[in-house]
Amino acid sequence: MNNLKSAIFKFVKMIIGFCFCAIGIVMTINANLGLSPWDVLHEGIYKITGITMGNASIIVGTIVVVVNILLKENLGWGTIINMVLVGILMDVLMLNHLIPIADNFITGIIMMLLGMFILGIGCVLYLGSGFGSGPRDGMMVAIQRKTGKSLTLIRGVMEVSALIVGYFLGGTVGIGTVISAFGLGYFIELAFNICKFDSASVQHRYIVDDINYFKNFFSNKKDDQEVVL
């Protein structure tokens, strides 16, 4: 029973984390200072295909998951849920105008900075649940594990790469893009430090663990049946 309660608590914590992530992302978009690098990419895809920003996010997340597999980063159920749910929540927030759009520079700066910090808190919550990293954060953690470089540097390189591709696809670039490209890694690290959260210390349960569990379960059940016979 205690294990079930713990699993439910962690799952709810993960979903709340994804909500924070979606809110933070939309706040940076509605800051109206220029899209963040990943959203420049999402908008570029939107302009080419006509799909929503959220759906573009899901497509990009799918591609990143494939890259994570190549980097030998294990996938958790949280990885898959993140890939889908954050995109859906983005569309819900944006299409229903649930977060206001900044109408001046000062308000835009405040929304941009607060949005990045809220996104960082979202990362703490869902990564701490132990159901696996999200697609982009999984890539960030995998690269950190392989290189030993800081999260700020790694996230910065990822953001700039997404920006370049998105720009050539027609995405909108502004001063907010620059702030996000070089500041998001810092705000994620700041949130980690404030919450005293060490992503490397989290013991994640991956999809492969559940597959192995069920294999062993049915194998033992089969052996028990053979003993009875």
Automatic annotation (TrEMBL):
Coiled coil: none
Keywords annotated in UniProt: Membrane, Transmembrane, Transmembrane helix
Pfam families per UniProt: DUF6198
Lineage: Bacteria, Bacillati, Bacillota, Clostridia, Peptostreptococcales
Annotated transmembrane regions: 12-33, 45-71, 80-99, 105-129, 150-169, 175-195
The name this protein goes by in its record: YitT family protein
InterPro entries: YczE/YyaS-like (IPR038750)
Organism of origin: Romboutsia faecis
Keyword Membrane: yes
Origin superkingdom: Bacteria
